[in-house]
Amino acid sequence: MFISKEVQPSATLKFSQKAKEKIAKGEIIYSLGLGEPDFDPPVELIESVSAAAKNGFNKYGNSMGLDSLRLHIAQKLQNENGIPCEKDDICITFGAKQALILALMAILQPGDEVINISPCYVSYVPQIKIAEPNAIIKNVDLCRGDFSLDFQMIEAAISGKTKCIILNSPNNPSGKVFTRAEFDQLISLLSDSEIYLISDEIYEYLNFGQYGMISPGSYNEVAGRVFTINGFSKSFGMTGWRIGYMAVPKKQRKSISTLVQHINTNVTSFIQKGLEGIYNIDRGYLNSYNMHLRKMAGYITDELNAAGLQVIKPQGGLFCFVNVSAKGLKSDDFAAGLLDEQNVAVTPGIAFGENWDDYVRISFAGKEKEIRSGIEGIKKFLQ
Amino acid sequence: MFISKEVQPSATLKFSQKAKEKIAKGEIIYSLGLGEPDFDPPVELIESVSAAAKNGFNKYGNSMGLDSLRLHIAQKLQNENGIPCEKDDICITFGAKQALILALMAILQPGDEVINISPCYVSYVPQIKIAEPNAIIKNVDLCRGDFSLDFQMIEAAISGKTKCIILNSPNNPSGKVFTRAEFDQLISLLSDSEIYLISDEIYEYLNFGQYGMISPGSYNEVAGRVFTINGFSKSFGMTGWRIGYMAVPKKQRKSISTLVQHINTNVTSFIQKGLEGIYNIDRGYLNSYNMHLRKMAGYITDELNAAGLQVIKPQGGLFCFVNVSAKGLKSDDFAAGLLDEQNVAVTPGIAFGENWDDYVRISFAGKEKEIRSGIEGIKKFLQ
User: pTM of the full predicted structure?
Assistant: First the structure.
């Protein structure tokens, strides 16, 4: 395939390389870069997965996923998210990330346009270009004042060639959770179109602000045109396990099924078996973790606003996206300088979209002590 | 992406559907269709993988793979296969299947030609077209008399646009193990070119005939142009685990690394950790299994030759590819009729290449008793 210039190694790599060099020299790094919760998977899931391997669930399986797990997920999406779907709509994937690229591969034709809400997860743009090198990406920025959807710009970006819009709520990197009013307006904009919505809901259970979770797949007006994408990585502490899923629009089921047959064969059989009741386990630990996230979101917002930066308080997810233009540096220079001088690792805004070079992403996924040390480092760097 | 007509669901699906219907009705099916060994993963590997999950190897990891496992594989490829490679050349993937499509994605540009040795694994052709919809596939058939490489045809197929040749030895579906003489001749044909070799060596340890395993990556003449692809599925009874790998030519390392970052993030971290010493375990069970395969290969060859079919005795792999033209049916009609009348499931030759519609693939991966019943059914069907 033609690998376009948009398909580059993650912009965060050079910082992790520099951080590794410092660690090798014995220096302590305060990492506000990583995007994974710091808790382990629930013990009962580790046990059920181990038992499944011991009990022989080690052979080829259905390419779309283990039926019992697909049914469990379909019921979850119906009951919790109001999405009308059935077992056969569900495709289990190697992480939500793979679900996203499969959806793009299934629907994008050369010349199709994708409306990508920016700033966004670092892999969206490369994934679009891997899935279809001749797709045209129209980035539409969130409003700078409050990270709300900019409907004027979205409407202006829509054309007869628009194939899909990619949405992520709770949002990485902005911390925004889109509101009912925003979803209503977006859906009404799309209701008479044939545009697909790809809804990345991976941070669903990390939602600690005032806005409830809304899944666009629950709107009748766009029925049959929404890929609802989610996974277990963030909420169950299993980022490395790579188990995600999507609810596939019926008219795309054959394409997705064909692609996963020839790309995956199946997703790890014993893990699927071990997770077949995953949403039934006690998720009380998520309450404590969300309390931690809320506290850290407030702390970072208050501290950095007081230090002269512009911070919009995150409502969900693991990140705070901070305007650092007061320092007068481009985002990668800011991040490199901060790492050099204060041993604090953050992610430059440019990694999340070309118009966000005056921002950095600060993760509050980790331990409070490390976060506080990191924020103190940032404050010193600003002086 | 443009999904071309070559990208179709596996041709074997309609048979498995029919077989399922029969099973649901309480009928016994003799399955000679499946391509997976019937033994479980070694207990110590199930235990080490479970321990890795318990011990916290559940987070994001290196996109190219866990360093300890990559080093272990590089040493195996050096020592057993004579391939000069190092840790950083190794990429761990979700199965050998994913390694193959990643290699194709990395190297193929629109208009490039791929020489595909036919008959071949059912996913090669769809994978080429998924990786690059505008690639041109030149299928070159194995010689019908002995399934040897047809060098006249290969030479005729090579052009200035040839980007790669895909080879699979031991071969699915033919059971052929390419000889030293064949590899010598192939390599000399390619030595002054820039053509890549993609060598699928997944059946390496299922090799029960007279020919030793040869890895084309060991030839200096094509150094830097061979993707050596292998995995643990077939030899360690873990087809459903989906752990494969490839040795990546140095000049393609950056492309592969970028692709896996944006497609996989990483391959399941605790499984990689648990398998970091996989080639050190006692593989005595493979001796017994290869004895079973040799016995079954001989049995099937003798029985079906005696029954009037043309059978070339398999040397490796799990399959016998049988010329059934004596029955006067196209391969899918043969397979459908055999399933209908005798409850025996085989795979039609057309699934492995358009010129092989007078063949069927018979798997001898399973239990002797089932294989004997299946062969008896075929003999009755032929009468």
Answer: 0.96
